[in-house]
Amino acid sequence: MSFQKILNKALSEWQLTLIMLLATGYGLAFCFREIRSEMLGSFAMLLLGIIMGVQAFEHASKVPPLRSWPGKALAWLFMAIGILALLYPALMNSFVGSHFAMTMFFAAVLCWFCGHRRFIWMFAPVIVFILIIPLREQLLLFISFPLRMSSTFISVELLRLFNVPVSCDLTTIHLQGADIAITDACSGIQQFEAMVLVAYILVQLWHRGFSWKVIHYLFIIPAIIFANSVRIMLIILLYRMVGEVILSNFWHLTLGYVQLILALAIIYAAGLFLPELSEPAANDE
Predict the structure, then answer these.
(1) How does pLDDT run along the chain (285 residues), one tens digit per residue?
(2) How far is CA 218 from CA 31, 168, 200, in A?
(3) Stated pTM of the model
């Protein structure tokens, strides 16, 4: 589809376009707040939301914007939940409160002006813009520890299979005469958002239906954990060979790229075993 056709469709669906532009602007504002610290991660999530939004807009624009009673009922329900959230002090004093209320208000506007069927398509990118991007730091901290725990355990057990004298206590690896703490920098969390973005694009390139795409997405976390386990194993083995120099920022960055490439290779390889649609252009969801 040419740019002119896309522009014409966006103008004809001006209500839907305006709502999504406002949601994108909300997420963009929080990206600029982190431009000096976590710029790449926040903009990776912004790009993910934009890609999801463009794809969802293509599907939603094919659905008539029927303002039926289910859409209006959902709009009032979301509006009520948002107002109750604003009136609940404990929630508003938490880091999630205002963003949750804003998500409910955007959901209400989508349902009221665009109908409940279009809302089903467009709500996912709205969540990325309104909820995930502003709360990305808290979300990354939440998933960092499980990633570190699982990767540490897997890497230690695999090394012990090859008689490497190593053990672990939670996220600390014990070697002979040294302890290595698997911190957030070692957990792969800094590459997590880039992995999710590229993995999403990889999955979209396969011509399959929605259910098979969801199954393909489920390989993302195992791929990240396994790739990070390989990274930790390399750190331990190289530490035994060359010493503490392997713990420098240069090696962390280099092995981080190795983890990224390996994780994406696993995700791509997983797609080779999943079926494709015979007529992707006509039937793909």
Answers:
(1) 555 565 666 666 677 788 888 888 888 888 777 655 566 677 888 888 888 888 888 777 777 666 677 778 888 999 999 899 888 887 777 778 788 888 899 888 888 888 878 888 888 898 999 888 888 878 877 777 778 788 888 888 888 887 878 777 777 777 776 777 776 655 556 667 777 888 888 888 776 777 888 888 888 888 888 888 888 888 888 777 776 666 666 777 777 778 888 888 888 888 888 776 655 444 444
(2) 27, 28, 11
(3) 0.72
